[in-house]
User: Fold 3-phosphoshikimate 1-carboxyvinyltransferase from Sphingomonas parapaucimobilis NBRC 15100.
Amino acid sequence: MAHTLPQPRTVRAAAALRGTIAVPGDKSISHRSLMLSALAVGESRVEGLLEGEDVLATAAAMRAMGADIVRQDDGVWVIHGVGVGGPLQPETALDMGNSGTSTRLLMGLVASHPITATFIGDASLSKRPMGRVIEPLSQMGAEFQDTPGGRLPLMVRGISPAVPIRYTLPVASAQVKSAILLAGLNTPGETTVIEPIATRDHSERMLAGFGAELTVTPSPEGKVITIRGQAELKPQNIVVPGDPSSAAFWLVAGSIVPGADVTITNVGMNPTRTGIIEALKMMGADITELDARTVGGEPVADLRVRHAPLSAIEVPPELTPSMIDEYPVLFVAAAFATGTTIARGAEELRVKESDRITAMADALGACGVRCEEFEDGMAVTGTGGEPIPGGATIATLLDHRIAMSMTIAALNARDPITLDDAAPVATSYPIFFDTLEKLGAMA
Ligand code: S3P
Assistant:
């Protein structure tokens, strides 16, 4: 899954961006739909699955553990699951590529089964911290042999029966929460995760949809999420909504390119994911929500965005978890606003596919934008809507969101911006550049 040759790409300013586009399926929901279908008994069908490299890594891993997963010619994925308790010993190491979500959630799944699995990944994933899942999963009885610093490659020796735990998340992370809930699926009794700061709730929604006994109760310490283990999951037909994190690139592009008018259809509007829309609206973005509806248990809408002058904001810290993946592109929006935008309380950005604070400060800085890095965020001073200077070559650092964010920045730059490697885009948004072309911008 590693990319052998870098794919440099130069992006020029766009004359105008106009049209109606759809974004690919939600990455978080796609991973979970494959994992839970693979743990159900019988045939599940998934429509709108994101066919990006990260999700394909999850599919390969679930196949390696015995699930039958087939993509039909009509694009529907059909999965015959092995049942909770049924995953088989994988014969070779599980290659997670660039995907932290695949790694952390599958570490949880393996932890409570009597199998041993080795996880490997690319250079970016191999730098990311896994201690945050090793800690609670060790309390449940799983054993780990990790690379120093709690990193990949690592081996998980699962245990059955595992020990149910009650665990308060020390870091706001849907991946850690989901790893524990997945481990809890094959653990006798009740496994509880307490979440002081709410994060994306796709695991809870989908586990309940598959028939798991799961309760979510508010409490003074936060959301108390309890799963009763060793239940049977019933197969489902799932329709995956469009990914709001992918839509975010077009929301910013539409806001910063003069004359832009873009409609994005079928965007997931789960409130644990829509922080970027709130932040952009606070900045003055012209975003309208059309035809709000529910698809497969998730709220969905079409979004229309038109060019508008943006003003700097202080990003409200309470929005952080619901826009954690959107900071790189928010920094791009800030580069075109009037005034200095300040984001704080986002230290998690340092342990994503790259250190996204330094990566974006360096990238925007090289393009002539004034940025000040903080340990937990950044200040970006905007041009007031004028083009940024541009003209730099950007290190994308195996990080899809750095590559896409800087592509958007290039759409209103005086001189073209070159990505040293555009290949990482394929992890979450393989048709990103096709869509850019469809909107009238030639990359
Ligand atoms: C994800 C959770 C987030 C997010 C990632 C996907 C998920 O990570 O950044 O892209 O699907 O659970 P953390 O849980 O580490 O914040």
Notes: The chain has a mean pLDDT of 97. Residues 28, 101, 173-175, 178, 200, 324-325, 348 surround shikimate-3-phosphate (CB under 6 Å).
